[in-house]
Amino acid sequence: MTEYVNPKWKKLLQKNHLLDFESFWNLPNDWFEPLNTRRNGWSGVITKKVGEDLFFVKKQENHNFKSIRHPISGQPTFLREFQNIQYLIDHKIPTLEVIFFGIRDNQCVLVTRDLNKNNQSLQKIIKKKKLFSKTNLNRIAKTLRNMHHHNIQHTYPVPKHIYLNKVNEDIVLIDLEKMKKRLFAFQASIRDLYAFLKYARENMDEQDISYFLRKYFKSKKLNFLQKFILRRVNKKIKKL
């Protein structure tokens, strides 16, 4: 049994009898979205209101990923997400706030605080305004550049996974199960720039794309490596 309780939330959890694996696991499974099934396992999300806060409680059983260290039985995908969140925190990159994490045999629980209280998804902003503001493009470029500086690849930074803070300039990316550490920063750049532009370009004109790339590279004139990255990204997009 492995458990982590965020010290900041310990008193509130204790008050609501939610301080261990069993208490979260036994919450009614009123699924927030359809279950994700894989082989003999499953993974799902429910919501739980605690005081004035809403928590997302993610549960899974036999829903594993295989790695070099665990090539046969694998490990829970939520373990990887929890580790990725901790890695972002260590590098001072805004991310999800973990309330509780626990593993019991082939079962796993990851509880995070709802982002919607102080943040809004880029997907909703685009749907409402039908375009990107230069401020938001700059914030997204800065966040991705910071992640890539640490060789961190999100893998799928599309509008529905990007949340903008309503109070400060923070950007928070969700869906961190597939986040990975790359050997070279340019590998992360190619993958993430391609993914972002692939899904966001229908709401961006050429000026928006040019502005975003200038802010990402922090340069009006690209060097050799930056040109290489851009060529690879454009090549992947043209194949669509």
Automatic annotation (TrEMBL):
Species: beta proteobacterium KB13
InterPro entries: Kinase-like_dom_sf, Put_LipoPS_kinase_InaA
Keywords on record: Kinase, Transferase
Gene Ontology molecular-function annotations: kinase activity
Superkingdom of this protein's organism: Bacteria
A Pfam family assignment: Kdo
Name this protein carries in UniProt: Lipopolysaccharide kinase (Kdo/WaaP) family protein
